[in-house]
């Protein structure tokens, strides 16, 4: 029983969202403005919080070749320094336990930050898909309006031709 209520709620919520999108499209048609301009004003991403901006930057850097090459360089440097240079008393001897701790901490912090950025990207994709839907809806409505105008024009044209042929025969 509870699942049915939740499904009904979800469907009605989705129906309300579609209705609001249709209203926005109709308003754009009435105003004779470009819907894309209106959508850009509505869905501006300037309101991202500091944490969201940081997570995007960390995800961008963490998924770049700069990070991979820099991190590999750091690992090679760490191993060389602790194996060959500080042979008498290395800071982190061969099993490199401290290096493993550093790597674990980086992974433990970087993974949730990247997941936050992916969630934001998913939300952006959802908004972009909604915008695309609304633009396609407006285009479809415009095409229907043009089709109706062409049909009316064709009827008028046929009527004029019929009258002209009738007048010729008289």
Automatic annotation (TrEMBL):
The keyword Ion transport does not apply. Pfam families: DUF1003. Residues 4-31, 136-163 form a coiled coil. The chain crosses the membrane at residues 65-88, 94-117. Keywords: Coiled coil, Membrane, Transmembrane, Transmembrane helix. This is DUF1003 domain-containing protein.
